[in-house]
Structure prediction request, 188 residues.
Amino acid sequence: MLPDLERELLRKCQAGNSRFFEPIVRAYEPSGLRIALGMLGNPDDARDALQDAFVKAWQSLGRFDLKRPFGPWFYRILRNQCRDALRSRKVRFRVEALDEQLEMRPADAEYGPERRRERKSARERLWKALSELSEDHREILVLKEIEGFRYGEIAGILGIPEGTVASRLFHARRALAAVLKGTEAHDA
Prediction:
């Protein structure tokens, strides 16, 4: 969504017109769902956390500074919602069968059945490995490697300096590689 259009929609929302929040929800829902899924590992829990985050964003919109981008602010709310869900012990990170819509990338359709099975198996190993990482490592990998956010954007979402993003990402990648290497050795 274009920044000026987003800002105008948010301005109308702050004026009390809730119907202008729907395009904001539609714009942030796909990436928000992937982030929540990456943090929680379960599509139902991810959808619940995303919905709760949108409700909290709507309720707090009056305090939102329109000079700032909405995305990092919203993703911070979503991150906190996911962390609260994990802390509440109602939700544990668990790898379950994921919707094809969330797993399938457009390029996958170009491959034959054998290659699609290999890619699906690799995704399953990745999700299982993510489940074995700490919450901080999983979170930063989802933001960078799955969502493709830049260091500055991640710093804004997490509320940490860019140097800390780089450090956490380095350690998270190392931890993931160690888990994947252990999985490969176990599978052999």
